[in-house]
Amino acid sequence: MTGNPLKAKDEQPFVIDPIADTGAAKWSYFSLTFSLFYFFHIIAKYEQYTNTQLISVFVIYICFIALFFQAIRSTGKAVLKPIIAIVILSAVGAAINPGTNALFGYAAFFSGYYFLRKYAVLLLILNLAAQISSALILDLLSPYYLGPSLACSFSLFVYGIFSQKEYIHSCLQQKKNQQIEQLAAIAERERIARDMHDLLGHSLSSLALKSELAEKLANKQHFEAATKEISEVANLARQTLSEVRLAVTGLKLQGLSASLQKLTNELKNMKFDTQCYIDASNLPPMVESTLIILSKEWITNILRHSNGNSVSIAISANANNVKLNIGDNGKTTKIKPGNGIDGMRSRVAELGGSLDINYDDGVKLAVVIPLLATMKINTETKDTISI
Prior knowledge:
Elements: H1 5-11, H2 22-31, H3 40-44, H4 51-73, H5 80-93, H6 104-114, H7 117-137, H8 143-219, H9 223-249, H10 256-269, E1 273-279, H11 285-305, E2 310-317, E3 321-328, H12 339-350, E4 354-358, E5 363-370, H13 371-386
């Protein structure tokens, strides 16, 4: 539908925008088949009609068709004219063909569909008054004239009201779906930005450290060791490119154990005495992915800023939660949170967990993620996607 019924209600005090979408148009065209009841009286008593009357009958029907299409294509207050014209045409046309009582129902439907309730009822009353007046004036006060006419008008009026409600509900649902799509797109962009920061931050820091080490080794003419470091820089650069591609698609190539083993080796290569302990298996993918990102980000901070020489990494899980603890013996009094730590807190908060940083006896990161809450988040996410 091209119009917005909610907006139209604000701009037009008593009318909503009419049908204009393909589905509604098909239904409207099909409904014209019921207007063929207009010709039943002529077929039944054909011999009573003169040629002039027959021509008039067809002219009236053509005028009705024109008004019908004008009604379904009009917007705002303009739709009032064809509705009233159909009522007048049906009432006056009854003087030639009583079968025009089949056309009153179309005006009743448009009234119920296009207008707010109180104005729609006023139009229905006008419609019924025209039917009764034509019956009295033209001596058609008969159940065969008023019965079908009144019954059809009432039923189509009610159908028009329900069709209006369905249309408004459809517009609201469409708007809601658009908002959901926009929010999903924003969330995906934020996820990609966060993953890019976490992955690239760690990798680029390692590249910088290894490049500086290779330069120092070269200056000391330790060319074999420098060549080895340069080779590792090349490998790390290729791996970083692969991780960027995986981050964009939301995939993770390595599991938790392999990722932590790689981080442990990097720490050892940078002369950190490193211990790693993992007692967790079959973690939800969202939790495992978060633990990998958190570990990479925090170890990147250690490689950049720590003045210590010992690091411990421990992950343990039970039926209720999973814990990540990373500590080093570096001395510091305070860490100023940047994008990296803010991103870590955001990831943990999304899973209903907690993140604490302690400065006693070195710097220690403690993360707790509840597994039951995470399972609930996963279920809700699947339900949302399936809708």
